[in-house]
Amino acid sequence: MSPPSRRLQTKPVITCLKTFLISYSLIFWFTGVILLAVGVWGKVSLEAYFQLASEKSTNAPYVLIGTGAIIITFGLFGCFATCRGSPWMLKLYAMFLVLVFIAEFVAGISGFLFRHEIKAVLGDAYKDAVTNYNTTDPKSSAVDNIQKTLHCCGVESYTDWNTTKYFKDQGIPDSCCKENTVCPVEDLKNLDRALNLVYHPGCFTKVTTLMESNLGIIAGMSFGIAFFQLIGVFLACCLSRYITNNQYEMV
Asked: Keywords, A to Z (predicted)?
């Protein structure tokens, strides 16, 4: 058995580490809520764009949603393990934080890489969706949603619709019409008469700018929170070691 004075010196350290780790676990739980919210926001706000590039889209929002939900659960587990002072539970908590770090790092890399490839992927996908537009399939619905939301029309300009099969039958889609504007079908079949009825700018530049910006936010959040996990790994390992040593010294 070690001298009482040494055990007395260890207890304040354990108490201090417990305080820090509980505070960290609460912050960790809150970051889980943030990740879950960011993942849902990314999925909902970028849904139309992911539909266009469904074969090459990023899984970053899904990773963030899953990771956020798990973090909320294990954040509470971290608080429980710290209060119990169980070395094996603290080690399990540290292992989980390492896994979270890896998952978020991968999500961040995925969003960052996709952000730089977005123009090539969405450019081809959007041109294909406009060329084969028919108002019924998911990609056509995505085109309508984008044109209404971003106030744009076509790929580079509203005149892009002139070469499509849909234009010959129905003219420019209604989703290109300006707000509070009545667009007769006969006018939409004529580019000159449609000039004052529809949006002029193309959607390609607006879509790529929006996607790069939003995926940049997701990547930045993932990287920032991922490296925050390393603090928890350090605290959990230190507390587990001190508690184990203190139990050994009492024998």
From this structure: Disulfide bond, Glycoprotein, Membrane, Transmembrane, Transmembrane helix
The Cα 234–Cα 148 span in angstroms is 50
The answer, as to whether pTM is greater than 0.70, is no
pLDDT in tens, 154-166: 888 888 898 888 8
Write down the H helix ranges in 46-59: 47-52
- 180 torsion bin: left (phi>0), alpha (psi -120 to 50), beta (else): left
User: CA torsion, points 189, 194, 200, 202, in degrees to nearest 10?
Assistant: -10
Distance CA 9, CA 229 (A): 28
Q: Is the pLDDT of residue 2 over 80?
A: no
Residue that the structure tokens 């984008």 belong to: 146
* pLDDT 10s digits, 8-22: 456 777 788 888 888
